[in-house]
Each structure stands twice: as C-alpha cells, then as structure tokens.
Specification:
By secondary structure, this protein is an alpha/beta fold. It has a domain at 90-106 and 225-419: Rossmann fold. 44% of the residues lie in helices and 16% in strands. The protein is built from 19 helices and 16 strands. The protein has helices at 15-21, 40-46, 51-63, 69-79, 111-124, 143-151, 170-178, 193-205, 207-212, 223-237, 255-265, 282-289, 313-320, 325-338, 345-354, 362-376, 382-391, 412-419, 446-457; strands at residues 3-5, 8-13, 30-32, 90-94, 97-101, 133-138, 157-164, 184-189, 215-216, 245-250, 272-277, 291-292, 341-342, 355-359, 399-404, 440-442. The strands form four sheets. A six-stranded mixed sheet has the order 4-5-15-10-11-14. Helix 3 packs antiparallel against helix 10, helix 5 runs parallel beside helix 6 (143-151) and helix 6 packs parallel to helix 7. The structure holds pyridoxal-5'-phosphate (PLP). Pyridoxal-5'-phosphate binds at residues 109, 111, 142, 220, 250-257, 304-305, 383, 405-406.
Length: 458
C-alpha cells in the first residue's frame, strides 16, 4: 500500500517508512493513498473469523508488500498471547449498554491492542537491526505503559516516555514506572500532555537530532496504531448482525474514533460514531460549532482524554476538505499563527453525517460510575463512563456499543470516590505495589529533554 501526507499528496511512502517515521516530513500525518472497501460478501466472510484471523486480514491490507501475510498472522497471534482472553476483547451486556472491553492486555488499557503488535513489527521490519533505534513517545497516561510493555528488553531499542508530571493517575504512573528494564526511560515533564506531545513533535521535525538518535515514534499519530484499532470495530459490530450500530468512544487525540471512521469507510455498516469528551471539549466544539480552538488543558478525572490539540483530527480534515492537501496545510498554518481555525457550515454538515459529539463533565462521570455500581454491580473506569454519558440521549432503534478503554483498577481512587468501593486487582498487576518506581522530573523545555536523551545514550 502507498501512503501520502495530509499536507502533500504528491510524495509516496511505503509502510515501513511511515511506521518508522510516525510524522510526515512536512508535519502532516500519513494516510493511505487509497482505502479498500469490502463488498457485502467479503464482509460476511470476515464476520466468520476469530479475532486474530480477522486482524491478519485487515492489517495485511495496510502493510503489504512490506510484510508477508503468513508472517503477519504469526506475529499477531504472538502479540495477543499476553492478553487474558484469546479473543482479545470481551463484549458484555451491562444493563441496557453493550460494553466492548478493550482492556484485557498487559497494562489494562486499549492501547495494548495496537502496541503489542507494534512492538513485534519493530522486529519483523528489522528496524533496529543495523543501528539502535530510540523510540520517543508522549503519553497522557496509557500509551507510555503500553509502549513499555511492548518494547521492554528488545534488542537495540531504547524507549523514552514523556508524561505530564502529577497529571496522570497514581496507578497509571505506577505501572509505567515499574515495568521497564534498562532500555526504558520515564520522563515526568512539568507541563501538560499537549506540552509533551509538542516536545516530541519538535524533536521529530529537527532532522539533525532525529537522524542522530535514529528516532522513531509510536504515538497515536502512528498509522500502524490506527490500523490495529480498526479490527475491534469490525469484530464487535459482527456480534450485532442486522442491527443498526452506533459506537460511543472516549476520545482525546482522535485516534481510536478515527479507526472507527476508517472501518466505516471500508464498508462496515456503522450508523454513527459518538465522540465522547470530558471538559477538554475541543472536539465537541469543532464538530458542533465548527471552531477548532485549543484552550488551556483542564485536568479531569479522565486524564487520558485531557488533550486540546487533537492530532488525528487532521486526518478527518483531509477528507472533509475533499483531499485538498493545500487547504489542510493552510488550516494548520492558521492554527499555528492565529491559534484557531473555522470550518464552514457545509464542512460541519459533512462531519455530522458520521459523527455526533457530546461533552461529559467530571460530575456526570462520577454519577455514571456510581449508577453502574449500584444498579448493575459493575465497575467502569472514568473514560468508559464518558462514553456512556455521551450516548445517553441517543434514542432509537440502535445497538449502542460503548468502547471500554481502561480497566477500573487503573483509576481506583476515582472509583473509590464515586462508589466507596475497592477495585479488585486484576492478575496482570500482581506484585506491582511492591515494585520501586523509576522516573526523572524535567522542565518543559526541548533542549532539556534533548540533552537528557543524549546523556543517556552516551
Ligand atoms: C488514550 C485513551 C483514550 C483516548 O484515545 P484517543 O485515541 O487519544 O482518542 C481514551 N481512554 C483511555 C483509557 C485512553 O488511554
């Protein structure tokens, strides 16, 4: 498959290149030149497959010819061995809600589903065989631990994870800073997730630095992550055949929900995708009113969604602007110079054909967690709760599928606050409480971070 950038569709890249780089050289995001659409009988065929076979079918479309399909199949099977369920995800009926539990991997969040595959892709594509690779990644709490679990102890790979100091849950931090060995470095940056993301983007766009350290990225802008996430939209929708399906998705960087949008483009019948945000509501504002204007990040009970610069939204813009790369570039320059851009009525209408957006406050989030506990004796994490809240006014002859993005154990303090209940420790976490945390605190400053990395490599 050939790839282009959202800001320049004349240059072509292969899968290996886009996997390694993450971000296009012009600052844009990589997207496929053309996406395959399945016909009805192909969809029917796919619906018979196990999770891992389905994953191989879908993912191979995006990484051929760089990866052989049989090798990919083995790689995927291996990747999901660390999950507590062979089918990777669990789908449950809780009250009147269909919950798609995506959090049964090694670090208890949906990010494991893509990251475990990415870890093995580094080996398969022989990315670190000639020269050591340094993966630099910003996290709002869950990507970091998922990346560490996926890349721990891999030969010739170091991982530098930037998280916003004191702005993630204790258990998120604990997991992230205890599971890594000598090739893993945790940096607590005195700033927000957006600051961390900006630092990483800056380092990527400095050619000298990027080449010097052979830098690679696994942030949610990495197309390979999106590809792995497309799979569970198909898999879970297949459990509700002949029903009208709506997905409600807790959203931050617009990666997960964008994967749902791609699934829809590939022919999976999805009526609508609900963008659930917390009080960091930039996506809710742009979808409902057309103005994309990042404001200051407000720390919330769902910290993995505390994002104001929602990077993957640029991929949707490319479609909304009829694949006009110049227009995408112009809007992005405008965002940089003026701090915002506006979409017109037609463009908002186009987005609303596929999406519906709703904001859920912390107060509502707590109430939803409490209600679930009291009514159904079932604990959900604060991110998942926003997806429940965002879907509550959607009425009609639909099956609403809520994406459960994190295990409640990762946010046990919030659960305790909402319900006064303790969350039972899942078996992936055994022994974690006794482990010593390892991280360094840094100023929110590119040269400090660069010097830190160079210091560790010398
Ligand atoms: C990362 C994350 C999200 C947001 O996903 P995006 O792809 O950034 O929109 C939601 N919930 C949890 C638990 C997460 O870790």
């Amino acid at each position: 498959m050939e790839y282009i950038s959202t800001r320049n569709k004349n240059l072509n890249y292969n899968f290996k290149e886009i996997f390694l780089r993450g971000l296009a050289p012009d600052g844009g995001l990589f997207i496929p030149k053309k996406i395959k659409t399945f016909n009805k009988s192909e969809i029917e065929g796919l619906s018979q497959l196990t999770y891992t076979d389905l994953a191989a079918e879908i993912i191979s479309l995006f990484c051929s010819p760089d990866i052989d399909k049989n090798n990919l199949k083995k790689l995927i099977k291996k990747s999901y061995q660390s999950f507590i369920t062979e089918e990777v995800v669990k789908i449950k009926k809780v009250g009147d809600v269909n919950l798609v539990e995506l959090y049964h991997g090694p670090t208890l969040a949906f990010k494991d589903i893509a990251m475990q595959v990415l870890g093995n892709l580094y080996d398969e594509l022989k990315i670190a065989s000639a020269k050591a690779v340094n993966v630099v990644v910003a996290t709002s709490g869950d990507t970091g631990s998922a990346a560490i679990a996926a890349l721990n102890d891999r030969k010739n790979i170091n991982v530098f994870v930037l998280h916003p100091h004191n702005k993630i849950s204790k258990m998120q931090r604990k997991i992230m800073t205890t599971i890594g060995s000598n090739n893993i470095y945790n940096l607590a940056v005195k700033g927000t997730f957006d600051d961390c993301q900006k630092l990483v983007k800056e380092m990527f766009s400095e050619n000298n630095f990027r080449e010097k350290i052979n830098m690679s990225g696994v942030n949610s802008i990495n197309w390979a992550r999106i590809v792995c996430q497309i799979v569970y939209y198909f898999y879970s929708a297949f459990k509700f055949k002949n029903k009208k399906i709506i997905f409600s998705v807790p959203t931050g960087n617009f990666g997960d929900i964008y994967a749902g949008y791609v699934a829809k483009k590939m022919g999976l019948p999805i009526e609508k995708l609900i963008v659930a945000t917390n009080e960091n509501d930039i996506l809710e504002r742009v979808i409902n009113f057309g103005e994309y204007k990042p404001s200051k990040v407000k720390p919330s009970l769902s910290p993995s969604m505390d994002v104001q610069i929602s990077s993957n939204f640029e991929r949707l813009l490319f479609d909304v602007l009829n694949h006009d790369d110049k227009k995408v570039s112009n809007l992005m320059s405008k965002l940089l110079s003026e701090g915002s851009f506006k979409l017109n009525k037609e463009q908002i209408k186009t987005i609303k054909k596929d999406f519906f957006a709703n904001k859920v406050t912390d107060k509502e989030t707590l109430k939803i967690i409490k209600t679930f506990s009291e009514k159904y004796n079932f604990l959900i994490d604060p991110h998942t709760a926003t997806a429940v809240g965002a879907a509550k006014n959607v009425k009609g002859d639909f099956e609403i599928l809520i994406l459960g993005t994190a295990h409640p154990y990762k946010f046990l303090e919030t659960i305790k606050m909402a319900t006064n209940e303790e969350v039972k420790m899942p078996k992936q976490m055994r022994g974690i409480l006794d482990k010593k945390e390892k991280y360094d605190i840094l100023e929110n400053n590119t040269s400090d971070v660069k010097n830190y990395i160079l210091g560790k490599l010398s």
